[in-house]
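User: Sequence in, structure out. Go.
Assistant: Echoing your sequence, followed by the structure tokens.
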Amino acid sequence: MSIKVFSRLYQVDTITSDNTYIYYTNGSSISRLKISTKESVDSWNTTLITSKYDNPQKLYYHNNVLYATNNKSLKSINVTNGETDGVVTTLKTMNTNLFGIVVNNTDLFFSDETKIYKLSLIDNTHVTFATKAFSGTDYLSIYNNYLYVSSVNTINRYDITSGELSTWTLTNLPGPKGIFVNNAILYILHNTNNTLSTVNLSTLSPTVETFENIATNNATDLVCVDNILYIANTGLNNLLSFDTNIPTNIPTFITFFSGLLGDPDPLSNNSGMCFLNDIYISNYTNDTVDLIYKLTNTITEINTGVVNVVGMCCDSNYIYLSSLNSIYKISTSGAMIQSFNTTTPAINMAIKGDDIYFTTTLNTLYKLNLTTTAVSDLNTSSPSCNGITLLNDILYVCCSDGVYVYNTTNAIYSKLINTTAKKITHDGTYLYFLGEDVIYKATITGSYYPLLYDSNNISGMLYTDKLYYIKQGILYSYALIPIIRSLTPQSGLPGSSSIINGVNLSSVNAVHFGSYTINYQKLSDFSIRIIIPAGNDNVNVYVSSPTADSEILVYGLPTSYTICFLANTLIQTDQGKISIEKINTRKHTIHKQKIIAITKTQYETDETLVCFEKDSIHKNYPRKRTIISRKHKILDRNEFREAETFINKDTIYEIKYNGEILYNVLLERHFSMRVHNLICETLHPENKVALFYKQKIKEGVSADEILIQFKIDLNTI
């Protein structure tokens, strides 16, 4: 299955469709996107439908009418072939805020905090349909004669005729948001861990079958058109598409729920991974028969009769397992074909033709010939050998001091990469290896670049159609979306060049610089050269590929102003939302970047700060009241603007600064971050406050001990 970014939108909260257009809310308005050529972003035509709704919560299209829950009201607007007269009709006004909405023939179901109501579209009368099993905001969907309701961490089912709550239920879900049924498959968006899961409603008992990592931020709603699932990606203001027609024999994100395989953590002792039309995973269980798992759209246990499995590899027909001083040739059904005596334990294995290469506990390489059964010592030595992989005629060996290469043609053994390596795999062109808590992508000539941070406790890695890895008993997948981490230089005159540094840049097909799409030159998978266009300073930069867009960097001269926040301001880190003063630089990261310091400054000044009330720029932008320094830049309509330029003396206004400590985030590079859902700049590394902090840290002073106090204008340090 393939998830793509279909369109970057001004704002998107909830969506519905008439199969020709997708209608979406953006703040207090409803807009449309025409679906013509699904593979091209250029084919989307965005047109304002109406601005007469006041912050609609949920949309639903049925028979030329758009229905919306809007605070405490249920409203409708006629739409024919994507056109409307803009007349909004209030159908019902209730006493509490309304949320979910769905239509079944002539009945419309809608919900508030505690109840579900049924409205007749014939005479506009309504009745209480059911009392909800769990209170809170929710989403509704209908299949056969049942109404499905998502709420908190649960999805419940109600009989449409009687309103009776069914015993059918899904529990312990990670923050279910939007739900939609298509072809008996219930699709569920999970806001907590940004995944999409599926449940087959044609089975007797509900089971979450697959999790698809949609690599997004705060996805809230979804709709299906011609088996294409469209996802409202509220956090990044874009629309994703998910083609449910594309077959897959490998789940791209699988969570092993307790009891699913009779073992609450079946992969915690993973001892090998290989690919033979499907993914196979071995597991070490110590003196008992070890199972291997075959992963397709289901999980199959295979009993091989082999105990103490410590290594695994595959050729085009068979699986090979290593245990004690033997290697076993196994069919895909688990039948024993042949065993080979290796005289020494084979820990990590790779196969080429009739030869299996393996590492041993003595940190040396051996070769087993499957035809002659001869075992040869290849006379190599390196400290603490771990994973190995074979690409063409070269064997790549992970060791505690780096990656070594063994040429199987001329038997030359040499060092390629000088950094710790624990696991390794390849995609036919590039290597992927696990270092100290980081997965790197490397060329066969030895250049390498960080791919995934926070990669501790990984026990297995394998590349097939994408990168798969096992972490604490869970199999994850990682599609190679473009990642950009720095611009060098990060400022310059128009006509000068800059290098975008990152990884997975080979697939880039567009570079966006502020409001422009600019020409570029690919230098490698790790870098792209761009020429700076005229009239741009402090703008956002990102790249696009057929798979997804990258994160946003900020290009521009370092600010000479102080930019900062008050305590208790929530910052979106990779580990969750954390109050800025409580961020732990040793534990937390932002966009997978290390946080150098949380800067602290204090001033004696009569200057003011800027207060943004909730929804003051757009709906949920920001999500809550936010106080910020005047010169701090905020992203709006594809442009970074200083906070003071937003002041309207109504919902955005000046407030007195009372000498409080002000905080900011210093990363290695000038970047953006989410602050109460606002996209704000981080502290520029060349800002005077940043330079002071970096110098003190270099001198051995802890950043936690530093507080800079000024007796000058807050805006002109």
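User: And one key feature?
Assistant: The longest strand covers residues 593-603.
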